[in-house]
Muconate cycloisomerase (Cupriavidus cauae), 374 residues
Amino acid sequence: MATTITSVDAILVDLPTIRAHQLAMATMQQQTLVIVRLRASDGIEGIGEATTIGGLSYGEESPEGIKLAIDTYLAPALIGQDATNVHGAMARLNKVARGNRFAKSALETALLDAQGKRLGVPLATLLGGAVRDALPVLWTLASGDTARDIEEAERLLAERRHDTFKLKIGRRAVRDDVAHVAAIKRALGDRARVTVDVNQAWNEADGANGIAMLEAAGIDLIEQPIARENRVGLARLAARFVVPIMADEAVTGPEDAMELARLGAADVFALKIAKSGGIFGMLRTAAVGDAAGIALYGGTMLEGSVGTIAAAHGFCTLPQLAWGTELFGPLLLKDDVVLERPAYRDFALRLPDGPGLGLALDEDKLAHYRRDCA
Ligand code: MUC
Ligand code: MG
């Protein structure tokens, strides 16, 4: 008899962050995860995570909306389906719901986690095998205060936890943002790479002006300087400057990747499993980038351990990952809902080696942090 999906739960989990995290569009004082638990008739449970940044300020899906989509539409479509056929289950979800990529990503992760546990292999093995067992991880300096950011970077360099720092800018006037970035780069010198993420905050003229100054200050990479819809503008900026331009919000799936590649709009793609509707969508996006000679980078939606490790299994299978990753989400959280949190050392994140994701939920913490128990 087929092994079928018997239940799917989506749980909102509110976790405190270690400090406020300031981005162009929101300041995070905490993070909300949507944890998915998917059970099958053979008794195996898979877990997944859908997490976004700042409610609805980053993208079209909010944590509450993700839970609603799963509870109302996606879970009912999965119940009774073959739990061992991930592509089959995802095809059904794509038939009953357009978009909703974050929600679908969490469900795909849960299906893959369960199938890995069923077969007794890590998720990366299920995907064909990891080509690396550790991923370089940068850290985002986003306290909002230049001196505090420098202090934080110095400590993390000394601890050998991170040697690349991404600065979130776009809140202040271009000149003030550049002064902040340049001060940090001057303090760290050649001991660290410094990148910036503008999160679409600039118009094209600001972009040209800001990037010229950032390039002169020795910044290594400029992420999503202008609106995601302005692909032609992004192409003009990419052609104008030597410093590489990375597309993040502009590249969700393989179709965006094709168009950006055609336009020459980005030197680097930020891959995220949530943006692409899951690991397989992320891998298809990466394949387009690869074919177009575009460098790849493993992005994050600041997920907790479950979403971060899901992405890590996918990123570990990529032959090319020239810009490393930013999979530091669990380090921004004071606490999490897994028994063993991911290991970070020597500037890298290591994959757990257990079956599936290699993680187990901590039931006490889940009970403590779930929103519906408050
Ligand atoms: C983004 O836009 O890249 C990644 C790191 C961080 O601090 O925020 C995210 C989202
Ligand atoms: Mg970004």
Observations:
- Residues 126-350 form a domain with the TIM Barrel fold (CATH 3.20.20.120).
- The mean pLDDT is 97.
- DSSP finds 13 helices and 13 strands in the chain.
- The two ends are 41 Å apart (CA to CA).
